[in-house]
Each structure stands twice: as C-alpha cells, then as structure tokens.
Write a structure and sequence with these properties.
- This protein is an alpha/beta fold and 225 residues long.
- 32% of the residues lie in helices and 16% in strands.
- It has a single domain, classed as Nucleotidyltransferase, domain 5 (2-Layer Sandwich), CATH 3.30.420.10.
- Helix 6 packs across helix 7.
C-alpha cells in the first residue's frame, strides 16, 4: 500500500436491472470469519488541500465507475449525529480519501457526485448522499446501491462485509469502523480500512455485472475476470 497526498480510468458501464428471484442463502458469521482477510494494497491519495483536490477531481472525472463510501465519527448519545468526516472514492488505480475535517464539502465535490456520467457505487449509498446534502444541498445522480443490486440478483447478503464474503470469497476488516474519523491525522489502520471499503464496492459492482453476463468492462478496469 502506498499513501500519498494526491494525484492517479474506465469507460462505459451499463446499469442493469434483473427481475427479483428467490434469495440465495448467505454465509454465516462463523463461515465468513474463516475466509482470508483482504485489503486494498494499491495507491491511496489523501486529499487534504486545494491542490490535491483539484488533481483528484481531474482524475475521477475521467472515470465511469467510482467505488464510494463515507466515514462519520460515531456518537453514543441518543438523537445526536455527526457529519461525514471522510469521503472515499475508488478509481481503477487509486483510492482518494477526501478529509472533510481539512477541506470542507463544497460545490466541485458535489458536482462530481451529481454527475450522471460517473456511476458512484456503494452500500446504503443514498443515506451517505443525503448526509452530505445536509452540509451543502445537491441532488445526487449516477448512484448505484449495491445492496439493491444484489437483491435484484437474488443475493441475500446486504452489507459490504457479507457481500464481499459471499461474492468475492474474502473478508474485510471492520475494526476501524467505530474510530474517530474527525482526527486531523488518520492512522494507517483507518487509511487502509477506508480505502478498502471503497475498493471493495467497485469490485462488487463489476463482479455482479459479470455474473449477469454483461460483457461491459470499462477501459482501465483491472478486476479479474
């Protein structure tokens, strides 16, 4: 895994809806825990200032599919919520981590999330988009919920970890999930965790397309057939 503080391409995915079928049983928690642990080992760009954001957006605008996720500082007080502190976006070659504690959520980031030309794929992604829109109003477009995509294919697993286990055959660590994402300096564990979630989302999207018999593969996609 290489981490730097910013710049790293794909074309023509197709959105595909299948008729709902009988849900397939998913692996148990015990079975998942026996699978090998995987994480993103490629390029990670920390986006912390104007220059790194400009380079990241330029690269991501060339992509057709972006793995997407956000991280929020957990709260343990009933009725209290935090704003997203991190946006993760994965291209074919790089995962960008936009630290909203250093760089506020703003119009040029929202423009990418509102663009229909680049699909943003993730689990419960609509909730993430709504949380970001509460910071700066925008209308998300080009959004694919992987859980809904899985259900349409008869896949019972819904969470990112269970989808990765059932479809990709490995487990991902969730140990950093409840850490403080508002830290000015993210730990190596947080960086790897956050990058892995965005990467896995992108992998799952292409895996389900291949399962459906789609021959579409964007230019630059390096997922195994």
């Amino acid at each position: 895994m290489s981490v730097h503080t910013a710049p790293a391409s794909s074309r023509t995915p197709q959105r595909q809806a299948l008729s709902p079928v009988v849900l397939q049983p998913s692996l148990s928690k015990e079975e998942i825990n026996l699978l090998p642990l995987r994480a993103w080992e490629g390029n990670i760009a920390l986006v912390q200032d104007e220059e790194s954001l400009s380079a990241a957006l330029e690269d991501m605008r060339r992509e057709n599919v972006l793995g997407f996720d956000t991280e929020t500082k957990p709260t343990f007080t009933k009725g209290k919520t935090s704003q997203p502190a991190l946006i993760q976006l994965a291209t074919a070659n790089t995962v960008y981590l936009i630290q909203l504690t250093r760089l506020p959520f703003r119009a040029d980031i929202a423009e990418l999330l509102a663009s229909p030309h680049a699909l943003k794929v993730g689990v419960a992604i609509n909730d993430d988009m709504k949380a970001l829109a509460r910071i700066l109003p925008f209308k998300a477009d080009g959004v694919v919920d992987l859980a809904a995509m899985a259900r349409a294919r008869g896949i019972q697993a819904q969470g990112l970890r269970t989808l990765a286990a059932n479809l990709l055959g490995f487990r991902i660590s969730k140990t950093a999930q409840c850490s403080n994402w508002e830290n000015h300096e993210l730990s190596p564990q947080q960086i790897k965790y956050a990058a892995t979630d965005a990467w896995v989302g992108r992998e799952l999207y292409f895996h389900m397309l291949r399962q459906s018999g789609s021959q579409t593969r964007p230019r630059g996609d390096k997922t195994p057939a």
